Each structure stands twice: as C-alpha cells, then as structure tokens.
C-alpha cells in the first residue's frame, strides 16, 4: 500500500483478508478459543481477564520482537527485510564514496568514467529503420503496431545514450563544458548506476548499470529476432517497454479474428511444464508463451502444477513458461486458482496504473487467503543477490 492508502484492488484484497482472518465475532468464541498465532513459545489470543491491570500484565509478557509468521508471512520475509536494508546501506556507501582521483597506482575518476563510457558506446547498436521495417511487415496487425511503438521508444533511448556518451567524452577531454546533466551522467557511471536521463526513456527497473546494459542488449536481440523471423513463439515480457500493450494487442487480434466484443474478452493463463524457451516447439495459434517471470512469497511445484510454500532461504523462484490465451469472459470458469498480480519490478508499485502488467491465475490447493497473507506476487524483472556486492567492485577500481 502507498502511504497507508489502498490504491488498487489488490490493496483492498489484503485489507479484506486480514479483516476476514483476524477480525470478527469468532475471536470471542468461548467454546473454541481463537489464536492469532500460536507456537511452542508464545500464544497470541484475547485473555479472559476483565481487569485493566491484568491486560497490561499480559501485554508485558508478550515478546518485543515478532517473527513474520505472527502476521501470516513466511519466515523468508525477514530475510527479504534485511536484504533490502543491506541494499539501502550499499547505495548509501556508494553515494558517500570519494568523487576525487584514486590513490597512487590506480586510475583517476575521469579515466574510469571515460573507460565505462567507451565500453557502453561500443555496445550501442544502430538505430532501427522504422520505415523499412514498416514496409517489411506488410499487413499491420495489433502486435505489429506494438513492435513499431517499441522500436520507436528503443530508438529514442539509443539516440539519447549515443549523444550523452559522446558529449561526456568530449567534456572529459576539455573540448566542451561540463553541464549539470553531463555531471549527473558522469556521477551515475562512476557509481555504477543508470543515469536519470536514460532511465526516463527505459522500462522501470531496479538493476545496476552493468546488469541494465546486459538487459538492454537482450532487448535489442529480441527486437531483431521479431523483425527478421516474425513474432517470437515465446515472448520475453520484461524486454518490452510497455508489456501490457502487447497483451492487449493479443486480445485485440483474437477478437478481430473470431468476431468477439473487445470489452467482453479477457486473458486466461496457465503454467506449462516447460522450463526453457527452447522446449517450446511451435507457436500458439491464439495467444503466446511468456518467459522470465519470477514468483515471490511462494514456490511452484512442477509435478503437481500448483503453488507451494516457499522453500527456506529461497526468496524468489523463476516460474516455468506461462501460456496466455485470450478468451471470452463468460467462458472463463476458474476453480482452485489464485489471482496473482504480475508487476514490472519487485517494488510492486502500481502508481497511476503503471507497474501492474497483468493478473496471472495460478493453481493452488490452499485457500486464496493463505497466499494473500504470504504476500504472493510475480515480477518480470529481478535483482540478483550478487548485485549487492557491486560497491566493492567500484572500490577496487579506485585502488
């Protein structure tokens, strides 16, 4: 929830679940005592005492520190909390590192920035020729429109990066003045972060600069394959600038083909047994396969094809290939499924309708409230634990 406010249906679902599970007349049932949480060490329930002092004594006996299990969460939630704290600490350390030249025997700050800028410049591809690609596509289908829009946004990003890197190199050489924007870019490259002017033209991400460049290159490869060989059989959803537009285009194309009303159509999702894109042999006639989704708050049982409790110390698990099929809403009859939000990043932001990609229906043998309390969600981009150590690689360059 944002600022303590319920801003979407999933926030309301969380609140309603807590109210249904922990609030009601059943907590005062004298025949079947209700426990908010109970284990061998402590039991959280409403005491039978009626005097104020007795209530205070009971409260004082409760532990000061609570485990995530008390709130219905998995024990891994505590690991996630400390991981985020470590990330914040690393970011603060990066911001506090000296912005001056390195010690004797090491390269200077300007040399390091120039080296990074040169490496990035060498990896930047040529702009896509949109007019030629438009003619090559022939009939402009809804998914072809999405491709052209994606390429236009990607061209804007490439152009901005090329101009920024070239101008920064000239500024470091003393040929032009160092503007405020160039200084911000230089600082970001030195700290291994994505410059703000690039971030505004790219999909939302929490990645560091090195991982973001690898993500950038893979996006270019997917676009190139889409142009040369047609729409991929398995779409890497996080490689799209606006992934929800592609899913909407799939629904539009199917509605045109079958004569369905667009406002009465939706998406049906199911998790396949394929774990790699190469396992998929043929493209779907309607819909698509999706790869690169990650599951938080639960694990996936491939044999039973359903949600399971998270494995200890495994915070995130990659989902197998997901099948997405457009279908008429009145024909969709779901049982024993959990409506799982799929977000762009693990921050799970959905401000102004941006950040939530779609809703996946995942099979389960548990009641949906169990997974709501566990905080189950999916995201299309992931920060790996090794990125927490990126600060030390920067320090190494300064020695």
Quick recap of the structure?
By secondary structure, the protein is an alpha+beta fold. Helices cover 42% and strands 15% of the residues. The protein contains 12 helices and 13 strands.
Commentary on this structure:
This protein is α+β, with helices and mostly antiparallel strands. It contains 12 helices and 13 strands. It has a 5-stranded mixed β-sheet. It is flat. The C terminus is likely disordered.
| Rg on CA atoms, Å | 26 Å
Main beta sheet: 5 strands, mixed
Beta percentage is 5-15%
N-to-C SSE series? HEEHHHHHHHHEHEEEEEEEEEHEH
Shape category:
flat
Distance between the termini: 43 Å
Share in helix:
40-55%
Residue windows where pLDDT falls under 50 for at least 5 positions: 388-399
> What order do the strands of the largest sheet run in, or round the barrel if closed?
9-6-13-11-12
Q: Helix/strand-derived class?
A: alpha+beta
| Annotation field: number of helices | 12
Count the E strands: 13
The chain-level mean pLDDT equals 87
What features would you highlight for this structure?
399 residues; alpha+beta; five-stranded mixed β-sheet; four-stranded mixed β-sheet; 12 helices; 15% strand; disordered C terminus
